[in-house]
Amino acid sequence: MPAGRIGRGLALRAVLPNAITAAALCSGLTGIRFAIDDQWERAAFAIILAGMLDGIDGRIARLLKAQSRFGAELDSLADSLSFGTAPALVLFLWSLQDLPRFGWFAALAFAICCALRLARFNAQIDVDEQPHKSAGFLTGVPAPVGAGLAFLPLYLWVATQEPIFREPLVVALWLAFIAFLMISNLATLSWGSIRPRRNIRLEAIALAGLVFAALLTEPWWTLAAICIVYLALMPWSIISYGRVKRQRAAQARD
């Protein structure tokens, strides 16, 4: 082999993040296949797995210094399908098809709002002035979190078998509410900005371990509890951002 051609192959570090993104896409779309077969628990788990994979592909790309515009576009398209289209179809097949017109409208609204949120995120990548981001917050609910929140009625239904949680009108209104949160301008928590104080790091590690154990033993109740805690923290994040905004305004006047 000529010496000049050695080392010209594609580096693994350039492929790995995009491969994880592709795996997340496959997982999200597989959730639809499980829903077609009425395997609701597997459908929800497949989309949750897609969210977990989506949470690590970007971090691995930054760790390996393999960020690229191609990877960003692939990630956005995968997110739209895995966290917009897939949850909408799963919830439609699970419940909303019993309310054909309004149910399909709610499913479409969720998928469209997810795509709009991702488009807004992409449009702001190169924008220098991002008040929420500079203060350590996100704008609206992220797409993977929105997909997880959308499944809250399904979590509760699997855990309790209460028919109220599968009621099409309830699911449609809930889906519309989460769709609104995704495209809203509300300041929401950014997990990367959460930094526990050093004096409680052992307690934080213990809490993380307990949550993981709860996911193994009572997954549906635990997922429901995580959703409720996240929603309960939203007013706190809005108030905290308002405090930061007032501080910045006061500094600008000075």
UniProtKB/TrEMBL annotation:
Gene Ontology MF, one: phosphotransferase activity, for other substituted phosphate groups
Primary location recorded for the protein, binned into one broad class: membrane
Residue ranges of the TM segments: 102-123, 135-157, 169-188, 200-217, 223-244
**A Pfam family this chain is assigned to:** CDP-OH_P_tran_2
Q: Which UniProt keywords apply?
A: Lipid biosynthesis, Lipid metabolism, Membrane, Phospholipid biosynthesis, Phospholipid metabolism, Transferase, Transmembrane, Transmembrane helix
Q: Which GO terms describe its cellular component?
A: membrane
A GO biological process of this protein is: phospholipid biosynthetic process
* Family, similarity comment: Belongs to the CDP-alcohol phosphatidyltransferase class-I family.
Descriptive protein name = CDP-diacylglycerol O-phosphatidyltransferase
